[in-house]
Amino acid sequence: MSSSRKIGGWHNELGSTMILRQTNGGDLSGCYNTAVGHAQHLYSLLGKTSLHLKSTCDKAAVGFTVAWHNQQFGDSSSVTAWSGQY
Question: Any residues with CB less than 8 A from the CB of 34 and at least 6 apart, and which?
């Protein structure tokens, strides 16, 4: 099993936050805390990045999903995905 390390955090002007951890193999995990609507509180996220393969001139791909399910609100039967380059 690969060890993981924190690679960053993010927040927006509405107060939502995210913490990401990455394994040596490029797997992402973390938590997303939305501050809007009826979905407030922590949600797990999973994803993948090529950041561990990035050379000095390449862009790294990143993608992750949040399944809107937690202990407080249960399952909303919804998933959101994000993707991009870094």
Answer: 16, 40, 41, 43
Condensed to tens digits (0 to 9), the pLDDT of residues 53-62 reads 766 557 788 8
User: 3-class SS at 53?
Assistant: helix
The token pair at 66 is 């949040």
By residue count, the chain amounts to 86
Tokens 């995990």 map to which residue? 29
CATH superfamily for 4-85 is Avidin-like (2.40.128.30)
Q: Cβ distance 76 to 50 under 8 Å?
A: no
| Distance between CA atoms of residues 55 and 7, nearest Å | 17
CA distance 44 to 75: 12
- pTM (2 decimals)? 0.72
61 and 53 Cβ atoms separated by less than 8 Å: no
Sequence letter at residue 61: A
